[in-house]
Amino acid sequence: MTERITGVPVAVLDSPAVRRMGLKVNALERWLLQQPRTKHLMRSLFAVRTLTKLKRSLRVPRGRGEFWQAGRSVAGIHTIDHAGTIVREWADAAEEAYGVQ
Known about the structure:
Elements: H1 16-21, H2 27-34, H3 39-57, H4 83-98
Helix pairs in contact: 2-3
């Protein structure tokens, strides 16, 4: 989970780009995010910063500055398989369970 993208906790996949960026906001940013009057300003600044980084990353060769947002269930992913393999596994499981071919 990182707060550096939008100011609220967001799940991202671990990558070198994420490690360089850092996962936590610094003390000043954290304090400003906790204050009712400055919270929206800080989130807006984070959004503008993120958009400029995204725009700049479109010109950089793939793989160097990438980070991918992930859902909360990403912790259960241990391998990355091809879609065809997954479909075959599910079809085999359905055939065993229901006798469907």
